[in-house]
Amino acid sequence: MPIKRAIGWVLFWNLIAGISTFILYKYSNSEKAIEFITCYIIEWTLSIDNLFVFLLIFKTFDVEPPLQIRVLKWGIIGAIVMRLSFILMGVTLVKSFQSILYFFGALLIYSAIKMVIEKDKAINIKDNPLIRLARKRFSITKRFHGDHFFIRKRGVLIATPMLLVLITIESSDIIFAVDSIPAAFSITQDPMLIFAANFLAILGLRALYFLLAHADNLFSKLKYGVAIILAFVGVKIILEQLHISIGMAISLAVIIGCLGGSVLLSILTKNTSASENN
Prior knowledge:
By secondary structure, this protein is an all-alpha fold. The protein is 77% helix and 3% strand. It contains ten helices and two strands, in the order H-H-H-H-H-E-E-H-H-H-H-H. It has a two-stranded antiparallel ribbon.
């Protein structure tokens, strides 16, 4: 996808999120509107971090750009199904065990610390347990056959490396959902708002992926912003269990500030490096 088209689609999905926020504000109340847009921004920010892993996966498996489209489509469908399952599971757990919110908060703080500590740690994509299981379960061709996950050879169904790519994409999204759903619960416990925010953020993933592919250096410091956001919402969810409330307007301002600040830092770092090289 050309960069102009990618930017256009990213702006389109963000506009839809803005219109949805306005509708909630006009026909529901301002609190619901702020909860929705805050959830959306959190999920959108975490999705950017997830997409960097997608880029790494495609690079590791040497997947050509034209072949990436189908995997992204199925990856997005799988992400929607998994997020819905995680949200329903989370709602059930919170209703049954309110104290599990302490665990959600601690998990987010742990994820934030781990993200900063392991920021330069190499990720061994092909060491995924599901990949090892798939290699044992299926006969797999040595090369890609277009964007097909399976081919028939002498009447026998054989997997292609594209199936391994899809499995890796889906398993990485499970890991990110473990962070994103508790983060959403720190903002609201309304399952419809959480799913709507996730749904809109995920629908824009494909365009956002191609934008990142063109301009990934603009987000080189994003991980720091994501880590601060995760730590903040982790502390917020724990404090609220202790009846210490952080206003939604403050939460929204902190999250937008962290996202914008990390992007600005990325741009400044890029310009500084370019000046030093010249």
